[in-house]
TrEMBL record:
Organism per entry: Kribbella orskensis
A Pfam family: HisKA_3
Domain annotation Signal transduction histidine kinase subgroup 3 dimerisation and phosphoacceptor: ranges: 198-262
Protein's UniProt name: Two-component system sensor histidine kinase DesK
Keywords: Kinase, Membrane, Transferase, Transmembrane, Transmembrane helix, Two-component regulatory system
Transmembrane segments: 25-43, 55-75, 87-109, 121-147, 159-178
GO molecular function, one term: kinase activity
Amino acid sequence: MTFINQPIPDGPVPGPFGDVRRRAGIGWLFAGIWLVFLSKPLGEILKHREMAERVLGIAALVLFALGYLGFFGWARYQNRQGTQLPVVVRIGFLVALLAMTALMIPAAGESSLTTLVYVEALGMMLLPLRAGVFLGLSLLALVEISLRLVPGWHDDGTYGFSIVLGGLAVFGLRRAILRSVELAEARKDFAELAVQEERNRFARDLHDILGHSLTVITVKAELAGRLIPANPDRAAAEVADVEQLARAALADVRAAVAGYRELSLAGELVAARAALQAAEIKADLPTTVDEVPEKNRELFAWVVREGVTNVIRHSGAKRCRIELGKSSIEVIDDGKGPTPSGEMSGHGLIGLRERANQTGATVTVGTAPDGGFRLAVRVDP
């Protein structure tokens, strides 16, 4: 028997015995196999002398088996449709099975109690857990009392033991399938979170790439426009730089799409110097990155890119200084300083904080000693 009161989600659902959805296709086989134990009450009915009671017993046994399989199929159909049978219908079905058991008693005698194992198993599957346990205890009490009070019936312990064993087996299977379904849902949630995280990462990378590149391109294009009347040769050089930057930005975007892009700290410092000079901001930058551990260089490269981009875009500064250490980096300008709230804002800084969190680093923004803006990142040892 399989648990039929729990909706099975779309797609493969791993379970203790394989895919739950794949097992659903052979659920009828598992349900029908257990009917072999009805051979005992059937044998007793066929040996009964009274024809009327024999016919009644056979009819009740056949209806019991057909009802069990029919309701099993109906419940599974409802499950596949994403709906559940009302509790009243489930209880009514169990009562009908008990009625069929009662009709077998005149011909089958105590062997009719075999059918109570099916009632308990279905009850554990169809009813809430507490109700299923209560049903099992009630049936166990009914069996024990009947075997002691009905003349000619003998208590050999097998009926009560079968009810307990059947209930425990179905309870274990029910819990296993529930855990399988929960695991499938959790895996689905994890997959969706992974997709969302990858989208966020890609959007963050594109923002950082294009934000920096387009800012420098804009500054150089404005500079070239001012130089055309007075110095055409330098204006032409700036236009060539704009073309080169545009091509580099396109290459970065393609690399980001491919997922293989890594920043170079030395390269970002060189690009930052050129961008600051084009914006007519004095650059005081490190000339070497040898003291920075390899593991910190990519993060520090992002700090340089984001920090310099913000200096050019928003600060109104005349000077920018970058201080580089083994486990820390600071980007300082003498411009307008941070916003009145002093909080980190903007997609670039938010993305930088996310990158820092992934490597265990701390991002700090605030007012520089000279009144400008200070962006600092420190990697915890």
